[in-house]
């Protein structure tokens, strides 16, 4: 089974803040990491390879430094790494991103299964997986929490729903997006690290994937950011003071009408 | 492309300082842009001498923008009932329709839809497009998106909204791709821009640290998924009149490449949490599983549901379905207790719309107090047991009064 895993290098979201004065993102101390959901996608791919044979390729669309993240994936069990990188891709929304990734995947060709994390922690859109599957005209299942079996080219998985779960199957090729519950990502082995050290990601540019320049990056995007701002919260802030007895007493008084 | 006018650039470095991606450096007295520029535009705004600009070429464009009119919502129907978010969408949808001077329609898909369409009209829909077909009994990304695509191409609504639920966030991206239009995920606010009637879609990004307002200027429909429990539904009005349009779909469009083997409903806490009037949530401050037991005890005393911050879930004190926040559930109870939760923004976005928020934390500077209605600074292991004791006494007292009556 030939498996492809889509990986995004993201800023560690918990550190990203807007400077209240300039209203710009401050990057101080913000680390670049592998999108945590993608680590679960990678782990699932490696486990499927170990069980059913085949290979795992990781792909990322991003700036040159995203190669670090791809090589980290190699250290954790991926066989090949492909970086889709070109200045022309900058500013892409999910529509332009799925176009670019689909052109790259068509260029590489021959994958039975594509696995993505359910969403990236910077954009939180969860739109690239389904959009990419549609661009490639293959079936997909989102929010997969378990792969039950792979048999005769069919894959059987459990998809989380708001009120429970569905067990579903489809004939591959197809695409899955996975949630954290699916597995526990492994830590890179020493052997893996050695392999990653020697490896270089294959780089694909806009012309390599025969992309229509009109469909790329900012100009190929259907959505635009109008403005960014810091979230505001209502601040009523009534502090209940005194001894623990008094604090609790005051609280119960306040809640009297509500309970 | 980001263009730098070397003549105008004074090499002050403001752009480099403000670039969130470290993509700009100053070399030989002028700014130089690197490969990791994402064209976010921050540098263009901060440049004091106007040396930076972003070149935009011709964009993806729907040719007949003016012909798209009306607000549509997707009414989610599963296991014999409408998802509550459908009514919330009608709430925000009727406001948008009023502002635009257009009608509000709902699309209802499924099998055995009963009075669903009538309920939607009573909650604000002018028209309900209904497809009642056995092939739609199970949710499928293929068939649901296909039939929606056909309806949208025929009636050309300017806006299409859906709930940011497991179902909405799964098939709506496929639908937007089929329609070659923009989609904004998980919106928490929607407004119409007066000048041109464009839908302004506001959503949290970067785990809730930043809010972004997005527009879809050149293609139609403008599509968004909307976070549940954020918008207010309209009052139910049984006498409201509306039209039900029963649509017969093309059977070929009902086929699905993914087959549902079985659909399992897991009742219990998961459902209770988002519907509970009282939610008691615990976080890192409870220190361990034993500490977290206080949360369950308080919830039991109050007849409320148990929730947790991500820290508590990650520590294994409670399972993921209880997590509230950006990567968990959004809740909107009457009373929310935040116990030992510092109030990271990722948590706040999931509970800030609760009517009354009570925070108990030992750290006076904890951000949770900025959103709380009532705050108690103190040792959680003293405050919570006392609160449980007092509430227990109070309940006993009211019971004995009832008993006498």
Descriptive key words:
heterodimer; A: 259 residues; alpha/beta; Rossmann fold; 9-stranded mixed sheet; two-stranded antiparallel ribbon; 6 helices; 27% helix; globular; B: 405 residues; Alpha-Beta Plaits; 7-stranded parallel sheet; 5-stranded parallel sheet; 11 helices; 22 strands; 28% helix
A few lines on this structure:
The complex is a heterodimer of chains A (259) and B (405). Chain A is α/β, with parallel strands linked by helices and 259 residues long.
Question: In words, what does this structure look like?
Answer:
Chain A is of the alpha/beta class. Chain A has a single domain (about 1-225), classed as HUPs (Rossmann fold, 3-Layer(aba) Sandwich), CATH 3.40.50. In chain A, about 25% of the residues lie in helices and about 30% in strands. Chain A contains 6 helices and 15 strands. In chain A, the strands form 3 sheets. In chain A, strands 11-10-9-12-8-1-6-7-13 form a 9-stranded mixed sheet, with helices on both faces. In chain A, helix 2 packs antiparallel against helix 5 (about 190-200) and helix 3 (about 95-110) packs across helix 4 (about 130-135). The mean pLDDT of chain A is about 90. Chain B has about 400 residues and is α/β, with parallel strands linked by helices. Chain B has 3 domains: about 1-55, 2-Layer Sandwich (Alpha-Beta Plaits), CATH 3.30.70.20; about 65-255, 3-Layer(aba) Sandwich (Rossmann fold), CATH 3.40.50; about 270-405, Rossmann fold (3-Layer(aba) Sandwich). Chain B is built from 11 helices and 22 strands. Chain B has helices spanning about 15-20, 40-45, 85-100, 115-120, 140-155, 170-180, 270-275, 290-300, 310-315, 345-350, 380-405, and strands at about 1-5, 25, 30-35, 50-55, 70-75, 75-80, 80, 105-110, 125-130, 160-165, 185, 190, 200-205, 210-215, 220-225, 245, 260-265, 280, 305-310, 335-340, 355-360, 375. Chain B has a 7-stranded parallel sheet with strand order 11-15-10-5-8-9-16, sandwiched between helices. In chain B, helix 5 crosses helix 6 (about 170-180). Chain B is flat. In chain B, about 50% of the residues are buried.
């Amino acid at each position: 089974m030939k498996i492809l895993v889509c990986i995004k290098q993201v800023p560690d979201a918990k550190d990203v803040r807007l400077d209240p004065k300039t209203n710009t993102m401050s990057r101080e101390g913000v680390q670049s990491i592998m999108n945590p959901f993608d680590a679960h996608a990678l782990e699932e791919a490696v486990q499927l390879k170990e069980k059913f044979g085949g290979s795992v390729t990781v792909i990322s669309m991003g700036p040159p430094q995203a190669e670090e993240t791809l090589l980290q994936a190699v250290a954790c069990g991926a066989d090949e790494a492909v970086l889709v990188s070109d200045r022309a891709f900058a500013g892409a929304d999910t529509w332009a991103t799925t176009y670019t990734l689909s052109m790259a995947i068509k260029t590489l060709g021959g994958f039975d299964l594509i696995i993505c994390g359910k969403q990236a922690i910077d954009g939180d859109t969860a739109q690239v997986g389904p959009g990419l599957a549609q661009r490639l005209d293959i079936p997909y299942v989102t929010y997969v929490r378990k792969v039950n079996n792979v048999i005769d080219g069919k894959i059987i998985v459990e998809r989380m729903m708001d009120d429970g779960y569905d067990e579903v199957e489809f004939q591959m090729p197809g695409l899955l997006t996975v949630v954290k519950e699916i597995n526990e990502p492994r830590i890179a082995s020493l052997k893996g690290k050695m392999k990653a050290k020697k490896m270089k990601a294959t780089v694909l540019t806009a012309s390599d994937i025969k992309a229509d320049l009109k469909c790329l990056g900012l100009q190929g995007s259907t959505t635009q950011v109008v403005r960014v701002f810091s979230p505001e919260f209502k601040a009523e802030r009534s502090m209940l003071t005194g001894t623990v007895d008094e604090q609790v007493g005051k609280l119960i008084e306040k809640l009297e009408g509500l309970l | 492309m980001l263009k730098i006018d070397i003549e105008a650039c004074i090499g002050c470095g403001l752009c480099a300082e403000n670039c969130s991606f470290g993509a700009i450096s100053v070399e030989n007295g002028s700014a130089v842009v690197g490969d990791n520029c994402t064209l976010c535009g921050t540098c263009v705004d901060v440049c004091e001498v106007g040396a930076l600009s972003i070149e935009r070429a011709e964009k993806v464009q729907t040719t007949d923008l003016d012909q798209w009119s009306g607000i549509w919502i997707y009414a989610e129907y599963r296991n014999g009932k409408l998802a509550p978010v459908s009514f919330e969408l009608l709430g925000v949808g009727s406001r948008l329709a009023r502002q635009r001077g257009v009608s509000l329609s709902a699309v209802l898909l499924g099998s055995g839809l009963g009075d669903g369409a009538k309920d939607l009209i009573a909650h604000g829909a002018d028209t309900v497009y209904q497809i009642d077909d056995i092939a739609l009994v199970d949710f499928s990304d293929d068939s649901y998106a296909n039939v929606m695509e056909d309806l949208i191409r025929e009636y050309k609504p300017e806006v299409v909204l859906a709930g940011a639920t497991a179902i909405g966030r799964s098939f709506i991206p496929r639908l937007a791709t089929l329609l070659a239009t923009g989609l904004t995920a998980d919106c928490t606010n929607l407004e119409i821009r007066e000048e041109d009637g464009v839908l302004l879609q506001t959503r949290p990004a970067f785990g809730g640290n930043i809010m972004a307002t997005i527009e879809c200027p050149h293609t139609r429909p403008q599509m968004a998924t909307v976070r549940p429990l954020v918008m207010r539904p309209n009052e139910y009005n049984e006498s409201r009149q509306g039209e039900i349009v029963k649509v017969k779909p093309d059977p070929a469009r009902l086929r699905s490449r993914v087959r549902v083997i079985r659909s399992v409903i897991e009742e219990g806490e998961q459902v209770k949490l988002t519907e509970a009037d009282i939610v008691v949530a615990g976080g890192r401050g409870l220190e361990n599983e034993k500490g977290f037991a206080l949360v369950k005890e308080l919830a039991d005393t109050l007849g409320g549901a148990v929730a947790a911050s991500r820290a508590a879930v990650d520590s294994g004190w409670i399972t993921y379905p209880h997590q509230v926040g950006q990567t968990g559930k959004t809740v909107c109870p009457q009373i929310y207790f935040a116990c030992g939760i510092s109030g990271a923004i990722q948590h706040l976005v999931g509970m800030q719309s609760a009517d009354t928020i009570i925070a108990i934390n030992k750290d006076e500077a904890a951000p949770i107090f900025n959103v709380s209605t009532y705050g108690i600074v103190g040792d959680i292991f003293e405050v919570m047991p006392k609160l449980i004791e007092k509430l227990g006494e109070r309940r006993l007292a009211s019971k004995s009064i009832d008993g006498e009556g």
